[in-house]
Each structure stands twice: as structure tokens, then as C-alpha cells.
Design a protein that fits this description.
It contains one helix and no strands. The chain is mostly helical. The longest helix is centred in the middle third of the chain and has 63 residues. The chain is rod-shaped and about 90 Å long.
């Protein structure tokens, strides 16, 4: 009885490892996607702040001559 369990465990090992690798791959892809999305949000906020600073400088130059 013990030997049959051990044999079954050995046979399931590669399939179990493949399942774990597949799940880790999904987690890595999800992390990369979320990281890229966060980076895009930060870049957009930075661009907006630069545009607002330029507009503010132009307005100040017009108002104060």
C-alpha cells in the first residue's frame, strides 16, 4: 500500500510542478500588467502637471507683463 502511494506521488510530481509554474506565470503577467498601468498613470499625471505649470507661467507673464 505504501509503495503505490509513493508511485502515484512520483507520477503526479511533474503535473503538479507544471500547474505551479503555470500559476506563477499568470501571477507574473498580472503583476507586469498592473505595474505598467500604474506607470502609465504616473506618467500622465506628470505630463498634466508640466502642462499646468507652463500655462500658469504664460498667464503670469501676460498678467504682470
Amino acid at each position: 500500500m505504501w509503495r503505490s502511494w509513493a508511485a502515484e506521488d512520483l507520477e503526479r510530481g511533474p503535473a503538479w510542478r507544471a500547474g505551479i509554474d503555470r500559476k506563477l506565470g499568470i501571477i507574473r503577467e498580472t503583476y507586469a500588467m498592473l505595474q505598467a498601468e500604474a506607470q502609465a498613470g504616473r506618467a500622465e499625471a506628470l505630463e498634466l502637471s508640466i502642462v499646468l505649470l507652463i500655462v500658469a507661467e504664460i498667464v503670469m507673464a501676460i498678467v504682470w507683463g
